[in-house]
C-alpha cells in the first residue's frame, strides 16, 4: 500500500486541574499524526498552544496540508523547509522519525547519534494556587528529587515559594513564572526565590519585554522558555539567560530540537528539555534530548488521569526511555 497520512484529535483528562499564570485547564487536547507505509504504522503527537496562536483546528489543517509532502515520500530533513516550526510540524516530524526507526530496524536514538538513552530524573510540576494549597500538593510529592513550581506574579509569590520550601526541604526547586512577573518586581521575586534556595527560574518576564535581563545581576540562573523557540532567538537568549527550555512543540519537532540543542551548548547555555501537558507519545521523542540536558521536565503523563498504553515507565523521580512499541 502507498504511504498514507492521517490526523486525529484526542482528549485526555488531567488529574484535578493544571494551573499556570495564564489560566487553568482540566484536560489535555492533543493532535496525533499517523503515517502508514507498507504495513508499518508510525505516530507523532503534538499539543496546540494558544499562547503561540495555535488551535486544534489550525494545527490539524497544517498537518492535512502536509499530506502531499508526506505521502509523496518526503523525509524529516525535507520537512524543515516544507512546514513552519510549531506543533503541527512536531507531530509529523516525530511520526517520520518513528517510521524511519520501524522500517530500518534502527532505534531512533541510534539514528540521532546516541549510543544509549539512560533513565533521567524528571521535574514534577506543582500547579499555581494559594500558598497553603501549593504546600499541601508539595507535601504529597516531597519525595521527588526535583519539583517545578508554577508562580504567577504578585505579592503572593514570595509566600508560595516559602510554603513550598517548607513542605519539601530537601527537593531541588525550579520556579516557572510563565511570564508572570514585571520589571518593577522581578528583583524582589528573585530575592525571595534565592532565600528559598531555588536552583533555576524560568521565564520571569514576558517574551519581548525581557531586555532588562541582559544587565540584571540575578542571584539565580535564568532559563528562557517563551522567549526562545529556535535558532533565530539564540543570540538574544545567550545575552539574557543562562539556560534554554527546548520543547518539541516550539521547535517543530525532534530534528530541529537536536540542532537547537547543539547550538545552545556551543553558545554556553544549559539545556532544559521540556514539554506541554501531553501523553507518553509526546514525551518519548523528547527523551532523546535528555543525555545533554541539565534539567529534564517530562512529567506530562504524570499530570493526567490516564495515559496511553503502552506509555513511558515512571518510577520515583525517574522517567525511562520509551519501548519501541510506544515510539522509535
Automatic annotation (TrEMBL):
Mg(2+) binds at residues 176, 202, 225. The keyword Isomerase applies. The keyword Isomerase applies. It comes from Alsobacter metallidurans. GO terms for molecular function: metal ion binding; racemase and epimerase activity, acting on amino acids and derivatives. Its cofactor is Mg(2+). Binds 1 Mg(2+) ion per subunit. It comes from the Bacteria. Keywords: Isomerase, Magnesium, Metal-binding. PANTHER family: D-GALACTONATE DEHYDRATASE-RELATED (PTHR48080), ENOLASE SUPERFAMILY MEMBER DDB_G0284701 (PTHR48080:SF3). InterPro entries: DgoD-like (IPR034593), Dipeptide_epimerase (IPR034603), Enolase-like_C_sf (IPR036849), Enolase-like_N (IPR029017), Enolase_C-like (IPR029065), Mandelate_racemase_C (IPR013342), Mandelate_racemase_N_dom (IPR013341). Its EC number is 5.1.1.-. This is Dipeptide epimerase.
Amino acid at each position: 500500500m502507498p504511504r498514507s497520512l492521517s490526523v486525529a484529535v484526542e482528549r485526555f483528562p488531567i488529574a484535578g486541574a493544571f494551573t499556570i499564570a495564564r489560566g487553568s485547564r482540566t484536560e489535555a487536547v492533543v493532535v496525533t499524526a499517523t503515517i502508514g507505509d507498507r504495513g508499518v504504522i508510525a505516530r507523532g503527537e503534538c499539543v496546540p498552544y494558544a499562547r503561540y496562536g495555535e488551535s486544534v483546528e489550525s494545527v490539524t489543517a497544517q498537518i492535512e496540508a502536509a499530506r502531499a509532502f508526506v505521502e509523496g515520500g518526503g523525509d524529516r530533513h525535507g520537512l524543515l523547509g516544507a512546514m513552519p516550526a510549531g506543533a503541527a510540524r512536531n507531530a509529523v516530524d516525530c511520526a517520520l522519525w518513528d517510521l524511519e526507526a520501524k522500517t530500518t530496524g534502527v532505534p531512533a536514538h541510534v539514528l540521532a547519534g546516541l549510543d544509549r538513552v539512560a533513565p533521567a530524573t524528571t521535574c514534577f510540576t506543582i500547579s499555581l494556587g494559594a500558598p497553603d494549597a501549593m504546600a499541601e500538593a508539595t507535601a504529597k510529592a516531597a519525595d521527588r528529587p526535583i519539583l517545578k513550581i508554577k508562580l504567577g506574579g504578585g505579592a503572593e509569590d514570595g509566600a508560595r515559594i516559602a510554603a513550598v520550601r517548607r513542605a519539601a526541604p530537601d527537593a531541588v526547586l525550579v520556579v516557572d513564572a510563565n511570564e508572570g512577573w514585571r520589571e518593577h518586581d522581578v528583583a524582589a521575586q528573585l530575592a525571595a526565590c534565592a532565600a528559598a534556595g531555588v536552583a533555576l527560574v524560568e521565564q520571569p518576564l514576558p517574551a519581548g519585554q525581557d531586555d532588562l535581563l541582559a544587565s540584571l545581576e540575578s542571584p539565580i540562573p535564568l532559563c528562557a522558555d517563551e522567549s526562545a523557540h529556535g535558532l533565530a532567538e539564540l543570540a538574544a537568549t545567550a545575552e539574557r539567560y543562562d539556560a534554554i527550555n527546548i520543547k518539541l512543540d516550539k521547535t517543530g519537532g525532534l530534528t530541529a530540537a537536536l540542532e537547537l540543542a547543539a547550538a545552545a551548548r556551543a553558545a554556553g547555555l544549559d539545556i532544559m528539555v521540556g514539554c506541554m501537558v501531553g501523553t507518553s507519545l509526546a514525551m518519548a521523542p523528547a527523551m532523546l534530548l535528555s543525555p545533554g540536558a541539565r534539567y529534564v521536565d517530562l512529567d506530562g503523563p504524570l499530570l493526567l488521569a490516564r495515559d496511553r498504553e503502552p506509555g513511558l515507565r515512571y518510577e520515583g523521580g525517574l522517567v525511562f526511555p520509551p519501548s519501541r512499541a510506544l515510539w522509535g
